[in-house]
Specification:
heterodimer; A: mainly beta; 4-stranded antiparallel β-sheet; B: mainly beta; 11 strands; about 60% strand
């Protein structure tokens, strides 16, 4: 079945450091891929998405490229801020079953000044 | 902001009591979802709805029921709460035909 694997956290960085959070997936068909962010005490917010191979999603300085050959959708940001501290979730949905959004376990990012 | 509210935001209850959580949306979306969030599991789908009175089970539906008598409201009921249902519950909507789901603020439920 479909699944998403994320790197274990927490990821601890200093402000202005480069961020990578790894995400790989297993899926039949051609899934769409998402990154959601959850700030403390809040619900999930869509950060970015990509719907086909080689698409790059981007938002708020974050980027992720849909790599079909490596079944990956790694999240990157060139210079993190303290305000980026949150939990990041990778997710996929199959175009055949758009109601079945499959999440990874989440990666907590902590950014220190 | 997808116009989603959840109530209550926090609830403490005892094992064996019934509990109903409400999700309300203001933008007439057809698709609505209930998830639970637990450490080490991410979010898992409990039930979803694709229209008034049309619902289906998700990955972890045992012990839960849902109802949708109006487009704007999607209710999640724990008929007899158990400690294993202590969790944070999120409602979501999907703006068809897009695949993207948008989430409410969550309800934190503690079952003692």
């Amino acid at each position: 079945g479909n699944s998403v694997t994320q790197m274990e956290g927490p990821v601890t960085l200093s402000e202005e450091a480069f961020l990578t959070i790894n995400c790989t997936y297993t899926a039949t068909g051609y899934p769409s891929l998402f990154w959601y962010v959850q700030y403390p005490g809040e619900g999930l917010q869509l950060l970015l998405k990509a719907t086909k191979a080689d698409d790059k999603g981007s938002n708020k300085g974050f980027e992720a490229t849909y790599r079909k050959e490596t079944t990956s959708f790694h999240l990157e940001k060139g210079s993190v801020q303290v305000s980026d501290s949150a939990v990041y979730f990778c997710a996929l949905s199959d175009t055949q079953s758009p109601d079945k959004l499959i999440f990874g376990t989440g990666t907590r990012l902590q950014v220190f000044p | 902001d997808a116009g989603i509210t959840q109530s209550p935001r926090h609830k403490v209850t005892e094992t064996g009591t019934p509990v109903t959580l409400r999700c309300h949306q203001t933008e007439n979306h057809r698709y609505m979802y209930w998830y639970r969030q637990d450490p080490g599991h991410g979010l898992r789908l409990i039930h979803y709805s694709y229209g008034v009175k049309d619902t289906d089970k998700g990955e972890v539906s045992d012990g839960y029921s849902v109802s949708r008598s109006k487009t704007e409201d999607f209710l999640l009921t724990l008929e007899s709460a158990t400690s294993s249902q202590t969790s944070v519950y999120f409602c979501a909507i999907r703006q068809s035909p897009q695949e993207t789901q948008y989430f409410g603020p969550g309800t934190r439920l503690l079952v003692l």
